[in-house]
Amino acid sequence: MKINSTLRYASGLALMGSALLIGQAQAQAIPESTECIAPAKPGGGYDLTCRLAANGLQDTGLISKPMMVSYMPGGIGAVAYNHVNGVRADDPSLIVAASTGAAVNLALGKFGEYDADEVRWLGALGVDYGAIVVSADAPWQSLDELMTDLKENPNEIAFGAGGTVGSQDWMKAALIAKSGDMSPRDLRYVAFEGGGEALAALLGDHIQVFTGDLSELRSQLEGGKIRVLAALSEERMGGPYADIPTAAEQGYDVEWPIWRGYYMGPEVSDEAYQAWVERMQQLSEDPVFAELREARGLFPMSRFGEDFDRYVQGQVAEFKGLAEEVGLTK
Amino acid sequence: MKIAADRVLGIALIGLAAFIAVQAVQLEMPFSYEPVGPKAFPVGLSILLTILSLVMIFRPGPNGQWPHKALALKLLLVLVLLLAFAVLFTQLGFIVSSLLVVTALARLFDATWGKALLTGVLMSVIGYFLFTTALGISLPSGYWFDTFI
Amino acid sequence: MFDFLIDGFGVALTPLNLGLAFLGALLGTLFGALPGIGPINGIAILMPLAYTLGLPAESSLILLAAVYTGAEYGGRMSSILLNVPGDAGAVMTTLDGYPLAQQGLAGPALGLSAVSSFVGATIAIIGLTLFAPLLANVAVMFGPAEFFALMIFAFSSMSVMMGKDPIKTAIGAVLGVLIGTVGIDSGSGVLRYTLGMPELYDGIDFVVMIIGLFAISEILLMLENSHSTDNDGELPPLGRVFVSLKEVLVCKGAIIRSGLIGFIIGVLPGTGASVAGAVSYTTEKRLSDKDNTFGTGDMRGLAAPESANNAAAVGSFVPMLTLGIPGSGTTAVLLGALMLYNITPGPMMFTERPEVAGGLIASLYIGNIVLLMLNLPLAGVFARVLTIPRWVLVPAIAILAFVGVYQLHSDLFAIYLMLVIGVFGYLLRKLGFSLAPVILGYVLGGLMEQNLRRALSISGGDVGILWQSGISLGLWVAAVLLLVLPWLVPKLLAGRKLSAG
């Protein structure tokens, strides 16, 4: 089986010889049975992140035995983080799903005694972007109109999203306020349980602005029920999102990528870590995987290994500064 | 005896209410948008609980029979067994830990040794394959077990 | 207008899809019957399987929908037979289901609940077919203020359960609400009552809670009962196997009313089968429990929550299919499954992918018929669970409890917590508490607090928002009437009698 799958993926590459070598090195460093922990209950974003890796690796033949997905809810990911640090620190078969939300929680010190540099950040396989959304019959046609109105009547415009004060959903609202020279404290912000509830509240006009993610908005966009005032991405996205301007091009310098990635235990050997990095890199370059990623509503993102590790550390440091600035931490 | 249980419970609940209220008041928020924060609800509940408990202390209701000493010991034994099950679950794996615990539980519920052992073996082995193979649920196979297979 | 449905039946009736509906119904019943393994886990477990098999979108959706509805059927079994709810929606089913089984009526109870489930689900599927787009618009009218009013209504309808010991019912409900406050407060993000344990940040999980409260305390009580003098550990008699038509007809009002209530509650995003079961049971007790037999093995008390929780399961498809908004955890997982096939549910789905929308609705009709046919004859077989001696039954419950909690958390803490809650449940039961108010307080309390705070955040502290809309005002009036009428009516009647005498 192992040889078979190695051969199959190797045939897809031009440099067959070197690929085989990589394959053999991988096979030695990583056990055949692999596992992905989703640090949440079944069905959430972390579950999808694990399944993205599991299905992708399976469909592209990079693993011979299906990857097991297990759930470890608790402490918005803190339980899994502590588990990996404490119990399975050197397990070469284990990867754990993470996202921008995890980086925010690390920055706020919500993962207990452990910091962001405790684990080995493996890489990200996709990214989603924040969005500033209003109802289709709302008076605001652009982010600027909303912000002007917001400064005059901060008490008449309620923001809502799927996370509490300090969550990554809230960060989007706070950053937009900050970019418009408003204190995030002056917002009227309502926390819901998950983006779906917040979106329903927007459609029912109970809140006026929803700070969500682009991928969860596709059907509402097509149905013409909502208007996305700004995408919090570096540049305009394609497909159904082509008409949505970025916040930056409207003069509000806010970007909010929500990456979907993985980390491994702190004591995993360099060999196993490198083998995983290579495996993930190959996966991200495969056209079969590209389709799968698109089906999840994710955009391409390729950061692996040291590069990704630096990226996450940088993000956490940035969030720490931000949290201090708005008074979330002391 | 019967009446005393409700009174003891009432006093314990008032203690709980006090704990809840004190903890709630001590909650620290970085900042909040909410007119009604996370403190109000627990504090309100603790007041309600105190009033209800006071009513119960002065007008206690009927209670069930409490187990006598030998039975209480057996109940404790069941709890210890379940606790042992929890500790052994990941250490020894599903099959071995449930074999031990099922056999012991069956014995406690008056099965003969033969019947208890048979139940233990059947339930642990059939259960393992039913859950893992048929239903796709992952169970610990036990760290030591891996080295044998 | 219903072309999509006719096409849908064409899709659903192919041999492959019919077979999948059958398989899903069977597996779903099994998942639902196992305590702790509910529809969410069933679907999460089967989703990768459906994907790996390379099934087309409509086929895998049919399979998963059958698992979902099947799990709601299965949840009642352990409620009736073991007094342990198989899933969240089946908590109220224990109240009359278990006493019925103890009286030797396990077979008829299982049969009746299968019929109730079928009728409730069918009412909801018809509602889904006819009114889905319309209802979606009503559902979004429910904002935080309306949900808060709905919770006030639900709590006041609970007053009917006060029964013999109103103080203990109230204390139980308060304790349930308090347990629900443990964890990160979703409004402010602060930690409440987590005692420094990260495992408690997400709160006390519902599954851990019901398995602990019901299953573990049941094991302890079984040990006691097998030693008490008035009951030599004797098993309840097995009695009749099938439910009679007469028994079903007695419950027809309860079944139909509860089906409607369940459907409406299911349609609202955020409330699901457990709330539906609670509201329908208390409503039915108020309407038809003239002799005060609810809770002692009244068939209507069994039929009502079963009809409602199945109707709610179907109802939660409405916001998912029409708005693309998941109304429950389970539909959130189904939504994820759809996304996997590059289908985005929402207003456009009925026009862009009619074979998926129609196929799904058609398969709900078919799946339900399959489930009824599967469950009626099986009632007799499952009723035999009661004849299993305690020394087999107790270890089996223990294993199911452990597996149920472990597969959800992969963590020992949850198992310890389950044991602690089990001891707590045992003590409560010994002290004459009923467990249902604790569970209801837990489910409703969190919804009540968060929605109150959300509503006041929106209004900036102005309490007027709480009764501003017609919907919330209506719910407030209904809630007050529920509390006042039972107290006022007997007084008026007594007054009349007195003056007549």
Briefly characterize the structure.
Chain B is 74% helix and 0% strand. Chain B is mainly α and 149 residues long. In chain C, strand 1 and strand 2 (191-192) form a beta hairpin.
Molecular structure report:
Chain A is an alpha/beta fold and 330 residues long. Chain A is 42% helix and 18% strand. Chain A folds into two domains: 2-127 and 258-326, Bordetella uptake gene, domain 1 (D-Maltodextrin-Binding Protein, domain 2, 3-Layer(aba) Sandwich), CATH 3.40.190.150; 128-250, D-Maltodextrin-Binding Protein, domain 2 (3-Layer(aba) Sandwich), CATH 3.40.190.10. In chain A, helix 3 (45-59) runs antiparallel to helix 11. The longest helix of chain A is centred in the C-terminal third of the chain and has 22 residues, at 305-326. By secondary structure, chain B is mainly alpha-helical. Chain B folds into two domains: 2-58; 69-148, no CATH class. Chain B has helices spanning 2-25, 40-58, 69-108, 113-134, 143-148. Chain B is flat. The termini of chain B are far apart. The model of chain B has no long low-confidence stretch (mean pLDDT 85). Chain C has one domain (3-500). The mean pLDDT of chain C is 84. Chains in contact: A-B, A-C, B-C. At the B-C interface, helix 1, helix 2, helix 3 and helix 4 of B face helix 2, helix 3, helix 8, helix 9 and helix 18 of C. Chain A: Residues 1-27 form the signal peptide.
In terms of topology, how is this protein built?
The complex is a heterotrimer of chains A (about 325), B (about 150) and C (about 500).
Chain A (H helix, E strand, L loop, with lengths): L1 H10 L4 H14 L5 E4 L6 H15 L8 E4 L6 H9 L7 E6 H8 L12 E16 L7 H10 L5 E4 L6 H12 L8 E4 L3 H9 L5 E5 L4 H6 L2 E6 L25 E8 L5 H16 L1 H9 L7 E2 H22 L4
Parallel strand pairs in A: 1-2, 1-3, 5-6, 5-7
Antiparallel strand pairs in A: 3-9, 4-7, 4-8, 4-9, 4-10
Chain B lengths: L1 H24 L14 H19 L10 H40 L4 H22 L8 H6 L1
Helix pairs in contact in B: 1-2, 3-4
Chain C lengths: L2 H10 L2 H19 L5 H14 L4 H26 L10 H10 L3 H36 L2 H15 L7 H15 L2 E2 L6 E2 L13 H20 L19 H6 L1 H16 L5 H16 L10 H17 L1 H7 L5 H12 L8 H4 L1 H30 L6 H20 L2 H19 L4 H25 L10 H31 L1
Antiparallel strand pairs in C: 1-2
Helix pairs in contact in C: 1-17, 2-4, 2-17, 3-4, 3-15, 4-5, 4-6, 4-13, 4-15, 4-17, 5-6, 5-13, 6-11, 6-13, 6-14, 6-17, 7-20, 7-21, 8-20, 9-18, 9-19, 11-12, 11-13, 12-13, 18-19
